[in-house]
Amino acid sequence: MDNKELKKKIRECNRCGFCQDVCPTYRYTKNEAAVARGRVRLARLISEGKYKWGEEDEITEHIKTCLLCRACVVNCPSSVITDEIMMKAREEINFAKGFNLFHKLLYRGFLSHQERLKVAGMLARFYDRSGARWIVRNSGVLNTFRKLKNMENILPMGLKPPLRSQLPEILKQVNKPKFRIGYFAGCATNTFFSDIGKAALLYLQHRGCQVEVPEIQCCGGPHKSAGDMEEAKRLAKENIVTFLKGDYDYIISDCATCGSTLKEYEELFKNDLQMKEKAQQFSEKILDLNKFIADYLPPDEDLKALDKKVTYHDPCHLVRGLEVTAEPRELLKRIPGVEFREMREADWCCGGAGSYCFTQQEMSAKILEGKIDNFIETGAEILATSCPACTMQLSAGLRKKSVKAKVKHPVQLLAESVGLV
Amino acid sequence: MLDKHLLVKLKSIVGKEDILTSKISREVYAYDSSPFIHEPEAVVFPETTAEVAEILKLSEAYSIPVVPRGAGTCLSGGAVSLYGGISLVLTKMDKILDIDTVNETALVETGVTNLNLQKAVEPLGFMFAPDPASQKAATIGGNVAECAGGIRGVKYGVTKDHVLGLEVVLPGGEIVTTGALASGYGFIPDLTGIFSGSEGTFGIITKILVKLTVMPETMRTMMAVFDSLDKAGEAVSAIIAKGIVPTTLEIMDKSMIRAVDDFLKLGFPRDAEAVLLLEVDGYEVEIDRQVDVIEEIFREKKASSVQSAKDRTEREKLWLARRSGNGALGRIKPAYMVQDITVPRHRLPQMLRFVSDISKKYDITIAQMAHAGDGNLHPHLLYDPDDPEEFERVEEASHEIFETALKMDGTLTGEHGIGLEKLPFMKLQFSEKDISFMKRVKKALDTNLNLNKGKVLEL
Amino acid sequence: MQIKDKFFAENPQEIAQKVIEAADEGFGIVPCGKGTNIEKYLASANKPVVMISTERMDSIQEFERDNLSVKVQAGITLAQLQKELHEHDVFLPLTVESHGRRTIGGLIAENEAGYEEYAYGKIQDYVLGLEFVTPYGEIVKTGGKTVKNVSGYDFTRLFANSLGTLGIITSITLKLRPEVEKRAAVILEVPSLKEASEISKKIIQEKLVTVTLKGYKDHENDKWRLIIGLAGFKETVKHHLQKIKKVLGSLNYSELDQAEVNGFWKEYYQKFPIYEDNNIVGMGDKRVLFKIAESCEKNNLFSQVAFSEVDFGAGKLIIKTPKETKETIKESLLAYNQEKFNFSFNFQKPQPGLIYKKIKTALDPNNLMFPNNRLTGGEYLG
Q1: Does C283 touch chain B (CB under 8 A)?
Q2: Measured between CB atoms, which of A18, A38, A42 is closest to B327?
Q3: Looking at CB atoms within 10 Å, which of A200, B153, B271, B272 has the fewest?
Q4: Are residues A254 and A345 both part of a single domain?
């Protein structure tokens, strides 16, 4: 989006205010600056020259507190693309002010380097297992770094080894495979939630799919959200090349954020003559795991009863990104014994929003609390969702409120029901 | 900027969390859904009636203008701070205090959104009849202050027909109650009525006792397509004349239909000149006969097609289409001026025709939408803010629309309010004596003119 | 009290002139229609008054059936208007049997409601526009003839129940309803008021096309009766009669058709006129009403009075008392009204009305309009 285009998009907002009803940050602040209409207004003031990008800290702050959950976009009668306007705004702010240290450390330092992320995962694991977690938490060392403390609260407990290290035991040859699948095992799945990946791979193989798990780069989603388009494109290019080489029928992800980001590679390179066509080929093959199972595989015949009350949280990137809502619910309802209970505001952002839970801790915590309250109201014992970032955030929320419930991907329940895990 | 001592006092009333004074905060409270932009000097969020009263006392003591504000969805500039001062944002007073199914009433704080009230009473078999298009965001306090209408108005009336009592803070800080909240419904004048449509110029509404309406047993939603706006208008008049009172009767013209369809992809007939959306509600045993009569009228008036919504989802889609009208126009041109003229119902076809002619005369796009059953038209005059010449034509066309509506015994505004927007036209509708009477009442309640000055009346 | 003059105006201009003259003399001004309900207020006036009657201003000015509106002069009687409207299949939901002889102006000044108040509310709900003469003798209009109208302030409801203290209403634009297809009623004798309450609560829950829901008892007959009126489409009325029968179970009842309903009310209001000095009226929160009625029954209060009506639909209690016992009955009623708010009696002194006081003082600083009535004479002005 160039500046002219940006100005035009911004002006499509005619300030009807309907976004107030669906914006999580507005609900908890009641502040007009923290709703799409206000944020777009601020962007407009800059695009019309009244202020400059990055010059007003308050504007920067309001632009950064947007979750990019797109609830406003889909509810906007003019379909104002507030998320894209915000990402563009962040890009401009970064351009004007440079990235902050936290961003550099987290995004360019870790997420862009799979090796380092592995190390981080190992450290996290050591920390979790050794009891250092308890010591550190109680010694107050972390209190000096508020952000880090909160990260500490959100990081998952009981880490298993990374998915990638388990692959030799999981992957196998499938006779007369129905599909050849390239599995995109995103950073979070690999490092923090290898159980989800494992369940997915086992289940897909069980259902007759030949699966490969290529070495990947981060999908670039976090970088895009932070307005780091340059890095996002670099990562995307590498992924496209890797996967096209494999010539898969479909490229599947269990992560809503990865999935929707990969789907948008096409858009990312629409003005890049070299990459355009490849990106298009790549994006066409992207499917969410739930959707693939629900729509491409025949219904299971070997499901055993799981007597559980289950509800489902829609990840933003799935419900409004890939527009997948019915499929995961359908999968859950397929399992005998499962009592599905719809949750209020199931499609509201959980406040995780990628790294939002680290960078905007206070707001994130409030949104999360509301989400957990809605979950408690259902009386369910399993909170299913389809995104590792949501899983991390929701688990932290359950821990904080001492709710005895588990967060699971629908595929984990399917695998369980078939007896694979 | 506000006086330092005043700021200190304001902080001591509401707490420092509930007051914003930064440049950027003032920017985002400078607008509502109208084209008017005026910055307040401070944005204050009271959480109780007592806080509102204290703030109004300060406003009197320091002669600081106060503009009450709910969701800021006013279409006529009612919520912008023309003279700076305090923007009093009431959205934090958002509790539903009581739902009483014996008296069929609900008591709510001013900042409860219309939609949240609807959601709260629906499981009990009730609805709050006023349902303005802005109901997702708009607050009940704002609905009362503007006397909001809505699409169910044909059968159920407007906000003032559903407000039984109020708690109001007067400009001097006195807390008073009116109507059923004051007297239990009788024996003294019910002054609730003067606050309906007073646009926040008489007092700050803090609590509202609303009348609930029994949710109809069943409803039928129909869409009829016409090859001219005229015929659609005539069908409306014919239905009213037949003694049928539909819940809703809405007309949308071609440009409106297309904009909405681009948003919702409902497969509306894109070549239709006019679409009439109609809903009747009532009891199961009576509804089909009404539908028959209506269909007969549609046939007589040569509707090119008539469809009925098959289920709740289809029905909701149709109404979402209608509610999204205003917003969706952003797709055609970046800005619009929306008029709200209302004429006696039998004059509707004539008025629709006139507006079409005006759009040709001034060479501007006018997207028409009308709460046809109430004679309430919403011509949206579209323009590009970068084209001042086009804007001028839009203004001239508006003027002519006003004059014509008044000649038909209509009114300048049916539900959006005078605000800042229609202030210059008040003297077209009212005599000097009428206006001076209004001023006398305004001054009786707000002697120092601190409350939303410059709206409704020039003072 | 001294009535200086009773002036029968022919048009608003004459009224304006008369108001200015009276004000110059310092006389009070008392607007009236037929004066059917006014004498009692005049007894205690504290200055000489000029009565201005709109009785002769009784024409229908504009009847726009297709807009469902009618503009009338203030002096037209309800009966006169309804007769005309009836011929065109529309009506104003205020009942002729109860209020037929009164003028529309007067009905607005007291914000009256008919026996179908439960469904249709009060007359203020039907006023689209007003023209009135101010205490300064100006002719002013408010509202209009459209159902939606937010141009300028809406003073139509300021005048409802203002008892002629803010100005003289000269013409009114009213919102009309298409005539209902069918009316019917069920009437039955019930063993006790408690029984009537219980049935009424059930009927309310059924959410029917109920327009009247009243229990009543007169001294000639020691039994309570309950009347349930219905109005709507013919299929619905028929269907809802069935539903009512189900609620009534084994109780005996009789069914009235449209003509019989009208006849019933005609006789009812002849027997128990609304406007009598000894009528005690209470209204407000129905939950409170149910409790008060229960206490009245428990304490045998109803057997001490000539007539009692409990309107379960509209939330009203009417008791016609013998003069001798009126004061003790008032005391009992006040004692039964435990909650003190949201329910009030016509004999109670109103709490000071601050908004009214501010407006009244600004519009009529010398308190010339109807001095010394319920609003202008006592505590209400503070």
Answers
A1: yes
A2: A18
A3: B271
A4: no
